[in-house]
Amino acid sequence: MSVTTITASTNSSVCGSANASRRRLRLRRSHGHLIFGTEKRFLSHQSVQSLSFSDISGQHNTRVEAGWFFKGGGDQGSDASSERSESANEDILIFFYQLDLATRVQYALNLEEYDIAKQLRNKLNEVEVEVTKQLETKRGLSSKSEAQDKGISLLRLRADLQNAIEKENYSLAAEIRDHMSKLEADSLAASIKAQAFQKAQFEFRLGQKLRHKKFGYRAVVCGMDPVCCETSTWMENAHVDQLTRGPDQPYYQVLVDVREDPNLLVAYVPEENLLAPEEPDKARFDHPYASFLFYGMDSAGDFIPVKQLREKYNRPRHEVPYDPQDERSGDDS
Predict the structure, then answer these.
(1) In degrees rounded to 5, what are phi and psi of residue 4?
(2) Residue 268 dihedral angles phi and psi, to the nearest 5°
(3) Would you tell me which of 13, 150, 211, 327 could form a disulfide with 187, CB atoms 3.0–4.6 Å apart?
(4) Residues 106-123, buried b or exposed e (16+ Cβ, 10 A)?
């Protein structure tokens, strides 16, 4: 199955892009994995993303991966780069791929190309199933199930421990006790993670413009987790252990204004490092992903997330408070 090229033009009134890049993004299957690859071509005085998706058919064990749109030059060892997140960037690109497939399904149906629509729908279902599994693992749903499984194992181990003691096999009893202690610790950690996702409280919202307290760049929220979901290696490089609230605080996927840091693009930032502006930030914001993640900007200068993005994170629609001053300003103009 082959999906033809789609071109998405960024509206300057939404993102204000003067310079951007053109990308070719290919989806292929290798050993049961769906893999994104990218190829970079720079354009001047345009803001165009050209993306194509192709698939070598396969049947099971689908996994979706993605690569960076921009490799970029410059100082890759800057402090801000410590919060760069490959997984966050991958998550955004996969989200775009889902949107693109859904659009193509509808387009094929409109043209009464039902066979093509069915193939696209099957591909979309395949990707959505895998993404759902990844989200369940990330957000603690699988952790809750894991905790229940460990609880059952603990009951069995307690019975084995009692039998070992009754048979005066104390060496075996000691091994069982050690195993039980490890299981109890793992079960507690899984339960805490599940509860954190269920009772998450976020200070910031999707589409909100923020500023990094330490590095100073402007950013827009495009995703969020109640706790840090990155790898231990990433957390070590980002010095998470030096944070006041550590990894057990909300973390945000943010788009970084490319005019302020063209090499960072997407960052994964702890809540304590982000600051909302005191006054509405209506200044221009440049980023190649903004055109498919947001409808545009509201009257307060923040971005309006597309419906699918709100549904992904189960976030309510944000209503901008009515300000009579805005109406008077409009009348004056």
Answers:
(1) -70, 175
(2) -120, 105
(3) 150
(4) eebeeeeeeebbebbbeb
Distance between CA atoms of residues 203 and 183, nearest Å: 34
Pairing type for strands 33-43 and 64-65 reads parallel
Residues 6+ apart with CB under 8 A from 76: 263
Distance CA 131, CA 91 (A): 9
pLDDT, tens digit, for every residue of 30-78?
443 444 443 333 333 333 333 344 443 344 444 444 444 444 443 434 4
Residue 50 per-residue DSSP state: E
Burial 279-300 (b: 16+ CB within 10 A, else e): eebeebbbbbbbbbbbeebbeb
Q: Between β-strands 20-30 and 33-43, what pairing exists: parallel, antiparallel or unpaired?
A: antiparallel
**Nearest-CA neighbor of 257 among 202, 205, 209, 305?**
209
DSSP 212-237: ETTT--EEEEEEEESS--S-HHHHHH
Q: In this structure, are residues 2 and 119 in contact, taking their beta carbons and an 8 Å threshold?
A: no
Alpha helices in the chain (DSSP H): 86-110, 114-139, 141-166, 170-198, 232-237, 290-293, 307-313, 324-332
Tell me which H or E stretch contains 34.
strand 33-43
Q: Which helix (H) or strand (E) holds 254?
A: strand 251-256
Q: What residue has token string 């005191």?
A: 278
Q: pLDDT tens, 164-207?
A: 898 889 899 899 888 888 887 777 766 666 666 667 789 999 99
> Which residues, other chains included, contact 149 with Cβ-Cβ below 8 Å and sequence gap of 6+?
none
Residues in the chain: 333
Please name the amino acid found at residue 125: N
Tokens of 122: 């099957």
